[in-house]
């Protein structure tokens, strides 16, 4: 059990990396606090597995340090780190029974026979493996094998952290739900730091207290699911989290007014520091853009209406820019023309992709 | 589910039958034919029934005694070869690099002995091991060890065994290497996470994953060593005395040296059956481990 600190961590698989592109992980500074349930979220190839493997010691970072509490473990082997990791695809030891598989990590660490037996029974009942404990692991289904892999990850109660690398990829959807809540329960019961890698946002948001979003080898935002939704620190987060993702519109900002094409949007905050060379964008989630019958508001053309179950989403065009907007219940729109009303509290301004804070202003600009 | 019957399949199968019949079944039948007859040359044959077989399998007869001792020699030879080459091949495969340019280098170096024709291998070692001009023989004698493979049976055996190990261990190693390469990295990573020792990694991951290729390696090495002919023939000619007269050498002596076609035919049939039987035993034992496991679970 430990707090894990990543200090100026960077990794390149190539020898002699030169440009930023050579790095699978760009510089990362991050602290995983003891007992947290983290989700590490990001698209394929952004370096999630690399980061986990560095934490567990399977990969040695090119630069930077890994600390468990105050101990520098960068040069320690995986075995010496006392950490558990579960991989994307099931790994079972073919010649052993399920029971022996689950006991293997404990046996290798000379845990006494009675404690091992007790622990194996506990884990098996948590994961519903009791029935098959005495069968050989080799010819079980992929689901079962992955449960065994999970079990081996969970069986040591004293680890610094448990790392899960997309552990439920091969699992059936209905079982997925169940296992995720089991993991959550185990987390509550044991107070162990857990880092759960996924590229599925619902999985991340349901498992974790804190979500770490990675993009292209860097951590772009860390926060609670609400924070990620309400205040994306990067246009990538806005786009990646939420379905549909945030609307990102190129714009020009003067003081507290944004110009999108020919439309004017008034802002809650004043932005004086934006320089001309930067790429300025306005971001707002579809949930905060309301479609209304033609009238006051920004004029738009409707292209399509999607019913996504819990809401209706209109795909519209504003000054030639595509946009997603929500349609409030009980409103029906005739024809193609409509108006948009933006909730000014949820309009964010981004410069080169990063959120700009702006200064609070009392009044509203025109 | 019923599979549609397609009579055109015969079109592809029949030529194969025909070729197998001409190349294997007919010659084999000729051998069977010879094995029940006696000949005094001049292409005259006389019916002898199972006489040769009786004589062959009766150790008190001269033929039977000769057969039994060659058989024992050959079995001993195969056993020694398997006991050395299989563990050695596994060890070599385990110590080969897994990536980088050295992989190609290793593979090429190891393939070289496999590409040398048998009689050349025999000749190489015949010269190499000579006490007067051979590098190996000379050095060994110089070291104060009395070594002479043409005079001393033990020396002759050692030379043949070392030669075969040199010639064929890389086959076992290459097969094992292929088996090892097919193990996904995740297994090794999981083993490190689980704190497995080097030995545990070998016995719980590598060896089980190599079982299939090992079966092939054992079968190939058994058959080959049990039928070994060319190299010892070139190296020792079966001597000194009869010390290295393996079944195949015995057989050729009988058939071509003495022109005892009947005896030789009977002997080759028995020889053949022994090989088949032993291969069957290996195969059943090694695959049964799998079957056993499944049966217990079912
Ligand atoms: N062993 C390796 N050698 C060289 N490059 C690698 C290696 N492993 C990963 N990479 C590269 O590093 C980058 C990050 O890979 P990584 O596996 O960490 O991504 P990921 O976020 O886990 O992706 P996924 O969601 O597909 O699992 C990728 O561009 C990948 O091609
Ligand atoms: Mg990955």
Automatic annotation (TrEMBL), chain A:
Coiled coil location: none
A GO term for molecular function: ATP binding
Gene3D superfamilies named in the record: 2.40.50.100, P-loop containing nucleotide triphosphate hydrolases (3.40.50.300)
Entry annotated with the keyword Nucleotide-binding: yes
Residues in ABC transporter domain copies: 4-241
This protein's record includes keyword Magnesium: no
InterPro entries: AAA+_ATPase, ABC_transporter-like_ATP-bd, ABC_transpr_FbpC, ABC_transpr_MalK/UgpC-like, Mo/tungstate-bd_C_term_dom, OB_MalK-like, P-loop_NTPase
Keywords: ATP-binding, Cell membrane, Membrane, Nucleotide-binding, Transport
Domain of life of the source: Bacteria
Family listed: Belongs to the ABC transporter superfamily.
Name the record gives this protein: ABC transporter ATP-binding protein
Source organism per UniProt: Microvirga arabica
Lineage: Bacteria, Pseudomonadati, Pseudomonadota, Alphaproteobacteria, Hyphomicrobiales
UniProtKB/TrEMBL annotation, chain B:
Subcellular location field: Cell membrane
Coiled coil regions in record: none
Keywords carried by this UniProt record: Membrane, Transmembrane, Transmembrane helix, Transport
InterPro entries attached to this UniProt entry: MetI-like (IPR000515), MetI-like_sf (IPR035906), Sugar_ABC_transporter (IPR052730)
Occurrences of domain ABC transmembrane type-1 (ranges): 71-282
Transmembrane portions of the chain: 12-36, 75-94, 101-128, 156-180, 213-230, 264-285
Membrane topology: Multi-pass membrane protein
Keyword Heme: no
CDD domains, A to Z: TM_PBP2 (cd06261)
Pfam families tied to this protein: BPD_transp_1
Superkingdom, taxonomy of origin: Bacteria
Family indicated by similarity: Belongs to the binding-protein-dependent transport system permease family.
PANTHER family attached to this UniProt entry: GLUCOSE IMPORT SYSTEM PERMEASE PROTEIN GLCT, TREHALOSE TRANSPORT SYSTEM PERMEASE PROTEIN SUGA
Protein name: Carbohydrate ABC transporter permease
Organism listed in the record: Microvirga arabica
